[in-house]
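Lecture 7 notes: from sequence to structure.
We start with the chain below.
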Amino acid sequence: QVQLAESGGGLVQPGGSLRLSCSASGLTFSTFAMSWYRQAPGKERELVAAITTAGISAVYADSVKGRFTISRDNSRDTVYLQMNSLKPEDTAVYYCKAARRRPTTSEYWGQGTQVTVSS
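Predicted structure tokens for the same chain:
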């Protein structure tokens, strides 16, 4: 019943921009911390960015710091990842995750969206 649906992936040229969206349903969105992960072929899934429940604080992987911005709109149950100055190394499947510890421990993943950075 809980669903996270990513969208916005696609093919872009190096230096280009892309905005990913993740819309949630079946959960109380504002009680979950949200994050974006990515996984390239043959590599481990890695954290890209995370944001707290009210969007007050965010963390980023060193590889994307200064280029990517995570944000959320709790009125729309949606989290975003704005990706600028894209590099070929950013090519991966990007996944949205929702997680919380209270009142109970819960974790949910989206199906992923492909981002390809190539000329």
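Points to note: Residues 72 and 79 are 4 Å apart (CA to CA). The longest strand covers residues 92-100.
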